[in-house]
Amino acid sequence: MMARELHTVLKPVPPARAAQSPPRARRAWLVPLLTVVLLAQMAAAMVTTAVQQTPTIDEPVYVAAAAEYLHEHRVRLNPEHPPLGKLVVAVGVALADPRGTADLPDDQGAAGRRLLYESGNDPWRLMLWARLPVIVLTLLFGLVVFAFARDLAGPAPALTALALYAFSPDVVAHGSLATLDVPAAGFVLTSAWLLWRARGDRPRLWLPLAGAALGAGLATKMSALPAVPVLLALAVLSLWPKRWRRALLGAAVVAAAAVAVVWASYLVVDPRLSWDPQQAQAPVVHGLRGLLVDVLPFPESYRDGMRIQFGLENQPWQGFLFGHVYTGSHWYYLPVALTVKTPLGMLALWSAGAVALVTVGRLRPAAPYVLLPAGVLLAAAMTGSRDFGTRYAVFLPMFLAVAAGCVLTVRRRWVTAVTGALVAFVAVSSLRTYPYYLPYSNEAFGGPAQTHLRLHDSNVDWGQDLGRLADRLRERYPGERVWLVYKGSGVPSYYGIHASDPRRAPLDEVRGLLVVSDSAAAKARGRLAQLIDSSRAVDEVGHSITLYRR
After folding, report:
1. What is the pLDDT confidence band of residue 25, given thresholds at 50, 70 and 90?
2. DSSP-derived secondary structure letter, 541
3. How far apart are alpha carbons 282 and 467 in whole angstroms?
4. What is the mean pLDDT of residues 365-390?
């Protein structure tokens, strides 16, 4: 017996297998190495972008709310958004340890300005610390994209999906800001992935985790609410082939975990839940929307936040699309804006990936988990009243990156070559726009320098280039008279920009440099339009601010 065991241990490896071992070992290291490289370049892009950009319009509000969570332990500022995303930002705010966090004004915009510019803090340092936790979370969602695609199709499709995610200009742009869009979308993606895993072994582990991820999305931004019925249906689908009672119980577990996370996010901020409805001044909501608000099993502050959101939806917002200014919203705004702001190779791979998911037999069961949440969220976003940017659909580069990776399951030699070429095209297009990711548009629409002719707001100019403008004025236009129309939350004088508002002076006195944010120029009417028409464009900053000579 011992002789047989010794013979087995010492049995030589066949030559063919021995020859194959080193390449296999190299391939085993290649996937994690490429994963690290892709995430490292994404991290470098986001960190350097975060360092160079001044606060965008929404960020000071979120940073002020995060500071108040830490020091006052109450939900008061920005109640229209739940607290979890701002608690992520609060990690960085806590490390920055800013001064002047007590007794912030009731007006959330004024609170943000006071904290950043009027309390002795360095806004560059504070904003970088506030953005870093979101950057880390964005990188972690990249691992979710990789894992989701790997579970569906293997390591090569997973790397393809991760590459598309890591080079997505929209994800890099908004993942480097202390805002809520990327965290909310990433949590919904994570929930969908965990529900897919629940189809296999250990559903008792994956279902509560999927519910927690869904709850994290709901506790970050209310725009995740349309995904709830879809994800609960997917929870049932994950267990349905076994027993229908067990499937319904699984969906109940997901729902309970989601509700628990929403409540926990509010309790972490304020264990007493001392919410003052009078201070929020939430509007009364009638009809089906009012019924939905009343029946949701969430804290009163969450439901008042929903009422505020519905009130905002009823306001007559202005939009801008391809040179046309309009009041209200267009259902086709987001599809058009996405066509402009998504790399061409990415659009091709998204389409091919969606087709692969519904036509390749072994992928077909995964199609609802990838395409349904994205489709429902997109449909909901298209019905919104605020045509402000593709950030409202930032979940698409996440879900459809997973779909795009599945193209490699099509067993044709040319598929691999074409996919590789398209991924390389995406990478080049993304790298060429560095570090101006917010105003990105693809080559078919002239690149980032031409985006302001077709889109506005967070698609182009969100106030991010005030610091760059200050540098440009010092370097090229020292001592010149400056007239400024700036759209953003920054304070120009803090950065050394001493300018007057040209809209408040007689037309013939406005001479020198006229500096206008491109979002303001896009919707210019009356006096501002007259000023721009009678001036000559001489320079631009960050593809978001234009300098005119008068």
Report:
1. low
2. E
3. 36
4. 96
Exposed, middle or buried by CB within 10 Å (0-12, 13-18, 19+), for 386?
middle
| CB-count burial class (<10 Å; 0-12, 13-18, 19+) for 496 | exposed
Please write down the HEC assignment for all residues of 115-154: HHHCCCCCHHHHHHHHHHHHHHHHHHHHHHHHHHHHHHHC
- Prior bond of 277 cis (ω within 30°): no
What distance in Å separates the CA atoms of residue 120 and residue 99, rounded to the nearest whole number? 7
The whole-angstrom separation of Cα 378 and Cα 398 is 13
Number of other residues whose CB lies within 10 A of the CB of residue 435: 18
Strands 513-517 and 545-549, sheet pairing: antiparallel
Tell me the C-alpha to C-alpha distance, in Å, between residue 231 and each of 125, 195, 288: 39, 8, 21
- Is-contact 170 459, C-beta < 8 A? no
Q: What is the tens place of the pLDDT at every residue in 390-444?
A: 999 999 999 999 999 999 999 888 999 999 999 999 999 999 999 999 999 999 9
Q: What is the DSSP string of 38-95?
A: HHHHHHHHHHHHHHHPPP-SSHHHHHHHHHHHHHH----S-TTS-SHHHHHHHHHHHH
Contacts of the segment 3-12: beta carbons below 8 A, 24+ positions apart: none
SS3 19: helix
Look at residue 194 and tell me whether its pLDDT is greater than 70: yes
Q: Which DSSP helix (H) or strand (E) runs through 2? A: helix 2-10
**How far apart, in whole angstroms, are the C-alpha atoms of residue 300 and residue 306?**
10
pLDDT of 240 over the 90 cut: no
Q: Give the whole-angstrom CA distance, residue 519 versus residue 532.
A: 13
Strand order through the sheet with 513-517: 482-485, 513-517, 545-549, 536-541
Confirm if 483 and 499 have CB atoms less than 8 A apart.
yes
